[in-house]
Amino acid sequence: MSPTRLLSLALCLLPAIAVAEIRPGLWEFSGQAQRGDQQMPNMQEMLGQLQNLPPEQRQIMEQMLAQKGVKLGSSGVQLCISPESAKGQNIPLQDPSSGCSHEITERTADLWKFRFTCPNGQGEGETRFQSDTAFTTQVKGVYDGHESTMNSEAHWVGEDCGGLPPR
Fold first, then answer.
1. Vertex 156: Cα angle to 4 and 28 (nearest 5)
2. 164 assigned to some structural domain
3. Rounded to a whole number, what is the largest CA-CA distance in the chain?
4. Between 93 and 57, where is the model more confident?
5. For the whole prediction, is pTM greater than 0.90?
6. How far is CA 13 from CA 55, 110, 121, in A?
7. Fewer CB atoms near the end CB (10 Å): N or C, the chain?
8. Segments forming the whole domain that contains residue 62
């Protein structure tokens, strides 16, 4: 699977999470995915591959991500969470054009379980909140007919979104 396709899959599988309140601002997401019995490159490896692209191709990739409100960070991809979304208990991390939907099936103060359906897959997962500045997500499902898993970590970078549009 190409880095572009893997990155798109990772963005689609990020759940629209809800929590009492996370901090607004710039968040960075990193993770590892597996499709069938094939381990996919982790986020650091994908970032390394993107760094090695010819400048024109890298620019195209960065522009594609920017159109989705995403930029490359030091160890993953970055998104901007607006103050309204952070306080609204429904953080819109899914790509709105992905066609994915989700349902929260269980929630406690630090754990949310969910199901999701996307045009090319479906599954379930859980998000564990360590604090208002960090959470992890584990997703299991079927994507393009293959069993897939993804483990991701998110951490708050700071208040300044560096020009990214807030979600």
1. 10
2. no
3. 46
4. 57
5. no
6. 28, 20, 10
7. N
8. 3-157
